[in-house]
Design brief:
Elements (H helix, E strand, L loop, with lengths): L16 H63 L10 H9 L3 E8 L31 E8 L15 H31 L9 H39 L7 H18 L2 H10 L5 H6 L1 H15 L4 H36 L1
Antiparallel strand pairs: 1-2
Helix pairs in contact: 1-2, 1-3, 1-4, 3-4, 3-5, 4-5, 4-9, 6-9, 8-9
């Protein structure tokens, strides 16, 4: 509902515009110092954080190559219905992969060329009529080379330079610092906002500050513990559809990890931003309701900007933001009714 007063926001404030800028500078300096302390703590715990960040990618790669193993085994039987069979049944292969955490590479060999004892030399091929050795491709039989999935080199995450590891360590420390310092950063932000509010409205800061921090952390946790798995599964399946084997680098993955959770955390501030704009008279709750189609379009565009170029991460951000948008409408109406009640009581 509309505000009950048209007074200027800064009318009851004794601060000039220059003093507001000085307050902003002070809050930014304090927020930066808090972030620096958070990053310093991040350097102390960056190593386990890197391991934690690697885990979703390792898990996704493990699932990907486990499925590829089953596809490879099934494809062999389909391509060679009358040829040499695998030494394991499809049921045994599935049991080894799914229950025992094994994976394999399929190779082909001449069984009669394998040495019968250590140090024994394999027999040479019979020379062809032309006097040259002849390779018999039809005599090859499949061999499965088994290994635990944890030791599969395809599941390892690579770096391409010696200094890349240090950059990864620094990025992990920065990510940790942002998360640890987020309550202090949001406190400074709301402190600056409170300087421009009416005296009775400044108490809202202590209500909205924990909500703001909780929404930010909820966005970060949603991205890390839920969205990553779906996004990685989609991207790896897309590689399989194109017939490409992924060879991910940890630095590229870490860049993805930095963008997605922070984007989710900032996007989840939408209800409080809507309420703030309503309180300063820029919008009313009815404006939000009447323009909801345009808002959904803006949310879709914002989600595309804040997330990498894949539909899953965009969808997982856009859907919660749409729900939070209508939650913001509810907040505006609820606080608007409180304003009317105060005005009625004062009259």
């Amino acid at each position: 509902m509309p505000r009950t007063t048209d007074d200027d926001l800064f009318q009851s404030s004794t601060m000039t515009f220059g003093e507001h800028l000085e307050e902003l500078r002070t809050c930014l300096i304090r927020a930066t110092l808090g972030l620096a302390i958070g990053v310093a703590i991040g350097f102390l715990v960056a190593r386990p954080v890197v391991k934690l960040i690697e885990e979703p990618l390792r898990r996704a790669l493990g699932d990907y190559y486990s499925k590829q193993s089953l596809v490879t085994a099934a494809a062999w039987d389909e391509r060679h219905p009358n040829g040499p069979a695998l030494s394991y049944s499809q049921a045994e292969i599935r049991d080894a992969v799914e229950r025992h955490g094994m994976t394999f590479e399929l190779r082909e060999v001449h069984p009669d060329r394998l040495p019968r004892a250590i140090g024994a030399a394999p027999a040479l091929a019979e020379p062809s009529g032309s006097g040259t050795a002849s390779f018999d491709a039809k005599a090859l039989v499949p061999v499965l080379l088994w290994q635990p999935l944890s030791r599969d080199p395809r599941v390892s995450i690579t770096t391409l330079s010696a200094q890349e590891a240090f950059g990864i360590y620094v990025k992990a420390a920065v990510l940790t610092g942002v998360v640890l310092a987020s309550p202090w950063i949001f406190f400074q932000l709301w402190t600056f906002v409170a300087a421009g509010l009416y005296r009775h409205e400044r108490t809202w800061v202590w209500t909205f500050l924990p909500i703001s921090v909780a929404l930010f952390l909820a966005g970060v946790l949603l991205a890390f513990f839920f969205v990553f798995d779906f996004v990685l599964e989609y991207l790896l399946d897309f590689n399989a559809w194109l017939g490409l084997d992924p060879d991910p680098r940890i630095s590229e993955w870490l860049g993805f990890v930095l963008v997605l959770p922070i984007g989710f955390g900032l996007g989840f501030q939408l209800p409080l931003a809507m309420l703030f704009l309503e309180r300063i008279g820029v919008f009313e709750a009815d404006d939000y309701v009447s323009q909801w189609r345009l808002a959904v379009l803006a949310i879709a565009i914002l989600s595309a900007v804040l997330t990498p170029a894949d539909p899953y991460s965009m969808l997982f951000l856009a859907v919660p933001l749409c729900l939070l948008y209508f939650g913001g409408v509810g907040l505006c109406r609820w606080f608007g009714r409180n304003d009317n009640a105060r005005a009625t009581k004062a009259a």
